[in-house]
Amino acid sequence: DRRVKIAPSILSADFADFGREIQAIEAQGADWVHVDVMDGHFVPNLTFGPPAVKAFRRHVKTVMDVHLMIAPVDPFIEAYADAGADILTAHLEAGPHSHRTLQAIRGAGMKAGIALNPGTPAQAVEPLLDLTDLICVMTVNPGFGGQKFLDMTAKIRALRSLIGDRPIHIEIDGGVDPTTAPLVVAAGADVLVAGSAVFRGGSVDDPAPYGQNIRAI
Ligand code: DX5
Ligand code: ZN
Predict the structure, then answer these.
(1) For residue 22, how far is its CA from the centre of ligand 1 (angstroms)?
(2) Are 173 and 141 spatial neighbours (Cβ–Cβ below 8 Å)?
(3) What are the boundaries of each domain within the chain?
(4) Which of 15, 25, 36 to mutate to test the pocket of ligand 1 (most atoms within 8 A of CB)?
(5) Buried b vs exposed e over 189-213: b needs ≥16 C-beta within 10 Å?
(6) Which has the least CB within 10 A, 83, 159, 177, 216?
(7) Over the chain (217 residues), what is each successive 10-residue block's mean pLDDT?
């Protein structure tokens, strides 16, 4: 379904060559570029912060979709606006004041996303819907690429019903591949993040497999 957007996660890219990796996945058909920021505190892994994300921006021609797996979020919102994030997603579980966080993200000129860990129910996001441009449904516990897909299709369907006719994306993140993608799209997802399933078999010097993998999702 080509109305569904594919957002490759550069968590599975070559960390010594992000600029060329971003150019390669865009040339191979990526709709958005998904950037996983981890702090070694909210999740048990550490990636990169605002200066690196600002450097990625120079290569992103599509949409830079920044997924913050950090706590706290609010002290860093301006830094990610300055880094050029188009969409900035914070976890509902990252702090007690999600309304303030989403308002601050929009106030800084970005689209505001809210991510839900697998253990968080759809209903938890209902009070935030009018402040939200994207809901990221995690289908793994965040922290690492290449984990096993957890079936969240009931949650996706519940979110579609709660959202009604609001213009809110439902993004799926974790374990998306050609087998699991049709399940989440049928349930109502319209943006698919994929790391290992996009980057496997290819490299910056041989990027054609990235395109084959994107089209297979
Ligand atoms: C998980 C990250 C994901 C991850 C997805 O913590 O938020 O974006 O990179 O990787 P795959 O597609 O390999 O599950
Ligand atoms: Zn992510």
Answers:
(1) 16
(2) no
(3) 5-216
(4) 36
(5) bbbbbbbbbbbeebebeebebbbeb
(6) 216
(7) 88 98 98 98 98 98 99 98 99 98 98 98 98 98 98 98 98 98 98 98 98 98
Amino acid occupying residue 75: P
Per-residue pLDDT, 127 = 98
Q: Which of 31, 39, 65, 173 is catalytic?
A: 173
What is the chain's alpha carbon radius of gyration, rounded to the nearest angstrom? 16
Look up 36 and say whether it is catalytic: yes
For this structure, is 173 an active site residue? Answer: yes
Ligand 1 atom closest to Cα of residue 143 = 6
Assigned superfamily of 5-216: Aldolase class I (3.20.20.70)
Q: What is the reported pLDDT for 3?
A: 87
Tell me how crowded residue 22 is: count the other CB atoms within 10 A of its CB: 25
pLDDT tens digits for range 183-199:
999 999 999 999 999 99
Catalytic residue, candidates 31, 36, 65, 133 = 36
Distance CA 187, CA 153 (A): 6
Per-residue confidence (pLDDT) for residue 28, from 0 to 100: 98
Atom of ligand 1 nearest to the CA of 67: 7
Residue 2: the pLDDT is: 58
- Known binding residues for a divalent metal cation are 34, 36, 67, 173
What is the DSSP code string of 55-100?
A: HHHTT-SS-EEEEEE-S--GGGHHHHHHHT-SEEEEEGGG-S-HHH
